[in-house]
Amino acid sequence: MSQEPRNHFTSLTEPEKKSKLWQLSSAKGKCTLWQRGQKERRPFRVKDFIREENRLVLHREAGSLAVGQDVLGTFDLKGVSFFLKAKISKLDQDEFHILVAADFYKSERRQNFRLLAYPIYEITASFKLPANYEGGKVVDIRNKSSQTGLFKSFLRIVEPQRSSEEQNLLRIRVQDLSLTGMSVFIGAAELDWFRAGEKLSAIEVNLQGEKLVFPDCRIVYVVDQIGTSERQQKKYKVGIRFEAMAEELERVLAGRINALLRSIDANSEFEEFLK
């Protein structure tokens, strides 16, 4: 059974195409080029855009290029991916020109596609433990007996290098991630801490070494899941929505998600789309 494409390609108008290529040139960004059917894909630094002729000028890097060569290309702007068809029209010692064809598309995946993080990517989310301190003791916020104190004492034993601030965090592996939210799996011991409709603050997501902090979040669902271990331990899937996200944070998150999705070879899907 073939996998459903992760990308939906939307054709842009001529003014929209010129606008995006001008933005790419102004930002001195990079455009990745490759020949259809070839595995090698190489990024080139953009030097200029000649608007009247739809010519993109790029810095020439090492490698074989030839005038008249047909190429496919892709670049990102503010977390959104664009794809194009072009032909190498001029070749100098330090630069080369590509004539961008009418075929110019935007890849729709900003909010409609989720990155399946586990088990491919090491992405974790850290939550503040929902407990208050009174006289140095941990008290459950719902006035119930809980495993909070025992859990934190256990962390001090197995991870003594953790700072006092880190010991107040519950770190969980992220299952999937998108611009609108994420999901994680929890066990029965953490179930009292995650209730649908509740607000969460300052969730820290470690996305392959980069830390992103989401100030306002909300739990949208908590559903039963069957564990995959031999003991079939009970698990629960928690869906979390990002709310009131700053534009810069959204831009960074979109860029990181798109970069990881790109590693799953969205470029191949663009070739399939063109057939």
Task: Please characterize this protein's 3D structure.
- It contains four helices and 16 strands.
- The protein has helices at residues 14-26, 148-158, 247-263, 266-274, and strands at 8-11, 30-34, 42-50, 55-59, 70-77, 80-91, 95-108, 115-116, 123-128, 131-134, 137-140, 169-177, 181-187, 199-207, 210-226, 234-243.
- The radius of gyration is 24 Å and the shape is elongated.
Helix content: 10-25%
Distance from N terminus to C terminus (CA atoms, Å) equals 19 Å
Beta strand count: 16
Q: Structural class of the secondary structure composition? A: alpha+beta
Q: Which percent range describes the beta-strand content?
A: over 45%
Kindly report the average pLDDT value: 78
SSE string? EHEEEEEEEEEEHEEEEEHH
Key structural traits:
6-stranded antiparallel β-barrel; 275 residues; 4 helices; disordered N terminus; 18% helix; alpha+beta
Task: Set down the secondary structure blueprint.
Elements: E1 8-11, H1 14-26, E2 30-34, E3 42-50, E4 55-59, E5 70-77, E6 80-91, E7 95-108, E8 115-116, E9 123-128, E10 131-134, E11 137-140, H2 148-158, E12 169-177, E13 181-187, E14 199-207, E15 210-226, E16 234-243, H3 247-263, H4 266-274
Antiparallel strand pairs: 1-7, 2-3, 2-5, 3-4, 4-7, 5-6, 6-7, 8-12, 9-12, 9-14, 10-11, 12-13, 13-16, 14-15, 15-16
